[in-house]
Amino acid sequence: VAQLLDGKSCARAVRTRIRREISQIAPQIGYPPQVVFIQVGDIAASTAYVNSKSAMAQKVGMLSTIVRLRDNISEDELLEVISAYNSDPLVHGLLVQLPLPQWIDTLAVASAIDPAKDVDCFNPINVGRLALGMAGPRPATPQGVIMLLEHYGLHMGGLKAVVVGRSNLVGKPMGVLLLQRNATVTVCHSGTHDIPRYTKEADIVVVAAGKPGLLTGEMVKPGVIVVDVGINYVDTGEDGQSHVKGDVDYATVEPLAAWISPVPGGVGPMTIASVLWNGLQLYRAALGSDSEQGS
Ligand code: NAD
What we know:
The chain has helices at 7-29, 44-59, 75-86, 106-112, 124-132, 140-151, 171-180, 195-199, 250-253, 267-287; strands at 3-4, 34-40, 63-69, 93-96, 160-164, 184-188, 204-207, 225-228, 232-235, 242-245, 259-260. The protein is of the alpha/beta class.
């Protein structure tokens, strides 16, 4: 039976640490960290993500502002809003919730966020800093996965790691972070032939494909560490409601795995904790104190 990579409890530990640090620093400085979450339109999942990130930010002692912009906003108007927060010295973190309407260029928006306030590592400058192992914010979800593994004392050095998925926000930076921890990394994607050939050899598999139940027991070796990033809303047909399912077929993988993260309660809470962690580091950096971001 696999041991659980419990994201809820790990995220709680990370938040406790953040809260403690803020309560030590903020009274001396005179103001707490402030994060601003920008949402365009009213996609239900985006509203839920923004609300929970904002609520958690407040819980750790940050000021949090949600800016909701109408669905038909132009790219220029959105860039102006971003620019206003970029120049507000009391704002330390800025996150634009994706996806954006299709007429807005996501890369232009990412590039407009001040790299020093970029809590989700969207800006190409921060993506470059990540690739080079320089200090800076890290993409929230992959950083959350690393925090979760390290929380349970799991070392990645020397392990064969397979990442399934190569998106700019999850799969690709996940590969980079694992590489920086001395794993030997293979990234599989929709163009990969015979994915089981790679996953069967892996000591650690991180699945971020957005395909419910993609990784099955037949695709892994006993003792594997499995991290499930997937969030899929699946209609099970049983009660007419949709349920959240991961990318891992838990029933067949769990009996073989040494460690496994559940969905929900795995990577999801870690992603939020990781955004807050970045917010704290950017606040510290803005104050000129040591940033704890490493490679
Ligand atoms: P995406 O759609 O941008 O990318 C999916 C990637 O998976 C692509 O690179 C594609 O090549 C690959 N892929 C798709 N089908 C595949 C298949 N059958 N075999 C191999 N590779 C395949 O998605 P994303 O933004 O990277 O998110 C991936 C999943 O993670 C989604 O379910 C998303 O909801 C979830 N997610 C969860 C969190 C969290 O906090 N837990 C955060 C971000 C994303």
